[in-house]
Structures are given as structure tokens and as C-alpha cells.
What does this fold into?
Amino acid sequence: MDETNPLEQALHAARALVLADLAARDVADAGVVSLVEEAVAHRRWWAEQWPEGITYVAGLVAQDVQDALLERHGRWPLCPVCDAGDPHALEIEPELGPDPHWVCGKAGVVVAPVGGLW
It folds into this structure.
């Protein structure tokens, strides 16, 4: 594995950011880490097919893990902004773009960059 390869750098960064968010919310058990690895492997293939999309990898890995967690564990990460109503998950914005952030779609509030959850 070539650590100077821009794709590998982007994938390592995406993995680290998503793992930081999972750890911040106490969700980073071995099974969940495996979901991250699966998402990274999938996005490696995706970025190899579309090299211009390398800057989108972090947000896409976060979305992939969020989708996989929904199927296996429920909504993640839960919104820390809204106190009333049903608990809901944060969303990634932009859906396909650089510099992804977790946002509350209901309140329209940026909560944290991917990798910056508390």
C-alpha cells in the first residue's frame, strides 16, 4: 500500500474521521469497525472508477456507515440539538462534496464536521 497515494490518504483520513465520530458516541465496537472497513473498501473501488471523487470519500464513508448502522443498530448519530419530538439522526451535507458536516435537517443547524462529533 502506497501511503503517498492520494486515494490511500483520502481513505485513511475518512476511516479516521468516521472512527472518531463513532468513538465519540460510544458506538465503535468490533462489529461497527468492520462496517467502517467494508465502507472504505467499497469507496476505494468507487474512487478508482472516478478519481475526481476522491475529495468526496469522507462524506460517503460516513453515509455508508450511517446506512449500515440503521439496518443493524438503529439511527446514528442522534441529533444533540433537538430536545423535543422523536429522536432523529443527523445528516451529512453536502451529500456529495468536499468538507462534509453533520447537520440537523429539522433545525437546519450545522452540528460538527465529520470527525468532530462529541
